[in-house]
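Researcher: Please generate the 3D structure of the following complex. Treat every line as part of one assembly.
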Amino acid sequence: MPQRTLARYLTEEQRHKGIITGDLKLLLEVVARACQAISVAIGKGALGGVLGEAGSDNIQGEAQKKLDVLSNEILLEANEWGGHLAAMASEEMDLPHLVPHRFPKGEYLLTFDPLDGSSNIDVNVSIGTIFSVLKCPEGADLSTPQAAEQAFLQPGSTQVAAGYAVYGPTTLLVLSVGDGVVVFTLDREQGQFVLTRENVRIPAETQEFAINMANRRFWEAPVQRYVDDMVAGRSGPLGKDYNMRWVASMVADVHRIMTRGGIFMYPMDEKVRDKGGKLRLMYEANPMAFLVEQAGGGASTGYQRILDIVPEHLHQRVPVILGSRQEVERAAAYHAV
Ligand code: AHM
Ligand code: MG
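Model: Done. Output below.
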């Protein structure tokens, strides 16, 4: 049986199913190659001089790590010359990055969190890259980076593809082009992603939750009640025992849910209320919500479906509750009373 590489999977989605265009295929192959390059840099660790602080802050006021900056540069350089993109936006850049005039422009927009789970870089715990692909609206004003922001402000339901790479014991690429979720494993010797899981389905029910419990006193009342009821276990109102996991890399926590189910929450809390939440809509919540829904799960703020949110700005933040469908519905029900 020949191996189904990423290139082959994408060709089939294009040629047989007509789901993706040639340009989207090229875009996804380029993103995958960039993730491979990031994986190589991470693998070198201290030997490659990639650990530690970069000595700068990003637009969110967070200290950038060397790997945040390097991963951002790798993704920008890989994607700007191929002719498949109109513009890119990233957690690490204040404004969109326009494709330089010397290169042709394409019809897609790419957003990314180049290195998710930055606090885990220096402790050798799984980290990742998250990305989202949108169509650039006809006639969008791309004359300046400031003007270009408007083109990105589309609800997550319009995404044409989304994915993440997890740099863990193995490097994985998890992808959806709106035709279910597939997982590729990086074959380090061959230097290519090989399809290793198809038709990913998140079990509808779960007994595992992921949340930063240290923030309990800052949460809103519905989340406090819900988590208290989970912790109460079999003798509480939910009538079952739960287990808790928190990697503190969204990619790793979501990937566990893609593998065996669970519910992930970064709810609104008092510390982040003025920012709208902790996680970013355009390049964290939306791509993950798209993937989770494509795998049969749910994704909500507690009050509304994440993919329905009409973004107001590029670096907007939102509360995130996602994973096993029935559990996400239960969490939303706590918000409704
Ligand atoms: P980052 O994009 O700067 O790495 O921040 C996002 C991360 C998520 O990966 C993770 O779910 C969360 O922030 C961890 O937050 P906490 O430090 O409160 O555990
Ligand atoms: Mg992140």
